[in-house]
């Protein structure tokens, strides 16, 4: 078998069943440009170590560039006998340069250190792409928040009316987790970018006097791996990346779930843009929030990819084992999933219409101002324990009579407690309630305006 990278000690070629099982070109082909970049960097350190002449290096680089152009145009593709992308590209180089020159490049490197490095490079590029998409979603939320700065809505805990909050405050509460996801991607990149495995060889390093730091710099890393066994066997960088993608999916799914609820007849809080909703094949009246539902569903898939990857890594002995070839498909799928999901989701958010009158009219209902009564009493010097009781008694009186807190008369209030003077009415409006919550991070309009500026600065810093 002339095209295999490992035929020497074998009397027969691989069985067709093995070839079928072993092949990974259908998914690792996306590493081809990174493999070729690695080959250029490797050729240069081979020359620096005296293992290639200047002319050899020039010819090798020209051959790699020609192959890269053919990969790019689709003129060069993987053949059924190519085990993986590295094997296929080696074949392409041998075809272009002949066995004498083409055969020199493999010195001092292994697919084990290659694939670990190329995978990092690929993930680093897609971390940037995903970061941009997450930024766009956070910006869409910020724009909607700005557009609805003065609008109140029912804030909920346990899905029950709790206290009125600003719609902008609630929308920004979905944006902050995305900011932390951006931070996570940046942190991850700093860790991964410090550590190029190229030069680790199969596991033990190289005897050929090659300079891994030089290769690392050429490939965009700030340093090379300190331990060649770790360099070839570690995949925590993949698991961590898969976690961040899963967390992004989960953060989006929480917003998705609320959009689905808000879009029901019962809530009636939002209207989806026609371009970002779907119809039913049988029910002509339907307008469905499919993007939000797909976001909710795909978050499960992202979690599955992370869980599958961790299962592959669990108890895997050092150093490289072929199990590690299973590390790529899950995280490629997570990347592909987010790269189609996020643009659609951002479009849905950017074009969402809020039924603000309905939100505002529901904001104070369900005795959502009861806490305001209690805190008003505390400001009058009443211990909170008593204040809580008194405010609870107001709720009970209202519930018995089927009225809201602001419907109680001055006499009703005084009968419940002498501390409840008519001044309590200043917090019995949504505006008064919102304005009073003016500590940092609170829902008072002045604080939410500050928060919006803070969020935008954080998003822009990525
Ligand atoms: N295709 C393999 C992977 O993705 C790399 C090849 C390593 N093969 C080997 N026999 N050491 O992990």
Automatic annotation (TrEMBL):
It comes from Aeromicrobium ginsengisoli. Keywords: Amino-acid biosynthesis, Arginine biosynthesis, Cytoplasm, Lyase. Pfam families: ASL_C2, Lyase_1. Residues 21-304 form the Fumarate lyase N-terminal domain. It comes from the Bacteria. Its EC number is 4.3.2.1. CDD domains: Argininosuccinate_lyase. It catalyses: 2-(N(omega)-L-arginino)succinate = fumarate + L-arginine. One of its GO terms (biological process) is L-arginine biosynthetic process via ornithine. Belongs to the lyase 1 family. Argininosuccinate lyase subfamily. The keyword Cytoplasm applies. Pathway: Amino-acid biosynthesis; L-arginine biosynthesis; L-arginine from L-ornithine and carbamoyl phosphate: step 3/3. PANTHER family: ARGININOSUCCINATE LYASE (PTHR43814:SF1). This is Argininosuccinate lyase. It is found in: Cytoplasm. GO terms for cellular component: cytosol. One of its GO terms (molecular function) is argininosuccinate lyase activity.
